[in-house]
Specification:
Blueprint: E1 2-6, H1 12-15, E2 16-20, E3 30-39, H2 42-49, E4 65-69, E5 75-78, E6 90-94, E7 99-100, H3 107-111, H4 114-127, E8 135-138, H5 144-155, E9 159-164, H6 167-176, E10 180-183, H7 189-196, E11 202-207, H8 212-217, E12 221-229, H9 242-248, E13 251-254, H10 257-263, H11 265-280, E14 288-293, H12 297-306, E15 312-316
Parallel strand pairs: 8-9, 8-11, 9-10, 11-12, 12-13, 14-15
Antiparallel strand pairs: 1-2, 3-4, 3-6, 3-15, 4-5, 5-7
Helix pairs in contact: 2-12, 4-5, 4-11, 10-11
Length: about 325
């Protein structure tokens, strides 16, 4: 079979190679899946660079979430275990971790539902306890992680303010349903948020960016507001000033979805049931901006790393436009 592999760390477009390898053989408690669609995530780029919190042995195959097909024809969602990731024609996964793909979504959309939307749901509901009528500020609202938070915030009854970089991404954020969109390149995030909320600020901030995005967030967070730290796509890890947290009475909440996967798998399954209901109701639908062939995967991972994409870019190993 074909599989993309990383033999040395570096930029994805330079270190990913499309190799011919043996089809994996499932062991006890495992299932062999034919990969129907593999969603690209920012961690795939970090894995290539050797900058992710998990560093699999070389060579490894990136690809942390897929929509696959079991040997008996069922469509399922899975998170393949590294070093044998999902940018391959076949993967082996634990049978107990398989989740049914929602009928309302095609293969590419289903592949993009798992990690980003689980992260958004746990971040907004489990960590931030978002309530109807609250104001949610989402950074990188047109990106894969941000777009999920926008839809989930809307489904929760929040007023959603999206931050995007440039007119094209701002337009995507509006189409996703943001009540207000801020172009961070031309507008003052803090001033706009305060004006839109009558000086109160945002009740919940969803931050997958870090750096300057976090710095702006603490300047427009409401009394008893909650900042959910999801990642650092901007490249800079902020250092919170705890005296500021004390004086303004807000909370900084970390969200690492992978911990739920290992420490509370029942909660992950319950979340998937909720996401499936929302998909069936049309309240969430992953924004798949591109469906690319297997041969274009390395370029796609590089573009996600560079921050030039919107929504999700999904690889279809069999070449179909599903």
């Amino acid at each position: 079979m074909q599989a993309w592999r990383v033999h040395r760390n570096g930029e994805p477009s330079e270190v990913m190679t499309l190799d011919e390898t043996d089809r994996p053989v499932p062991g006890a408690g495992q299932a062999l899946l034919k990969v129907r669609a593999a969603n690209i995530n920012f961690p795939d780029a970090l894995l290539c660079r050797g900058q992710y919190q998990v560093r699999p042995p070389l060579p490894f195959t990136p690809g942390v979430e897929i929509c696959g097909e079991t040997e008996d024809g069922r469509r399922v969602l899975a998170t393949p275990a590294l070093p044998h990731g999902g940018l391959a024609e076949y993967v082996v996964v634990d049978e107990t971790a398989l989740l049914p793909a929602p009928d309302a979504l095609d293969d590419a959309e289903a592949a993009a539902l798992h990690i980003g939307y689980q992260t958004g749901w746990f971040g907004l509901h489990r960590r931030a306890r978002i309530q109807p009528g609250e104001t949610l500020l989402v950074h990188a609202a047109a990106g894969g992680v941000g777009s999920a938070a926008v839809q989930l915030g809307r489904a929760a009854g929040a007023t959603v303010i999206g931050v995007a970089g440039g007119p094209e991404k701002a337009a995507v954020a509006r189409e996703l349903g943001c009540d207000l969109v801020i172009d961070r390149r031309t507008e003052d995030i803090v001033a706009v948020v305060k004006e839109a909320t009558g000086g109160r600020g945002a009740d919940v901030v969803y931050d997958p960016v870090g750096g300057d995005a976090y710095a702006k967030s603490v300047k427009c967070i409401a009394f008893e507001g909650r900042i959910v730290v999801v990642g650092f796509a901007g490249g800079t890890i902020p250092t919170p000033a705890l005296n500021h947290v004390l004086v303004k009475n807000y909370s900084v909440l970390g969200l690492h979805w992978g911990l739920y996967n290992t420490k509370d798998p029942a909660a992950v399954r319950a979340c998937h049931d909720e996401l499936t209901k929302l998909a069936d109701q049309g309240l969430v639908k992953p924004l798949v901006s591109e469906r690319v062939a297997m041969s274009a995967a390395a370029d796609a991972v590089q573009r996600v790393a560079n921050g030039t994409t919107t929504g999700r870019v999904v690889v279809l190993p069999t070449g179909g436009a599903r």
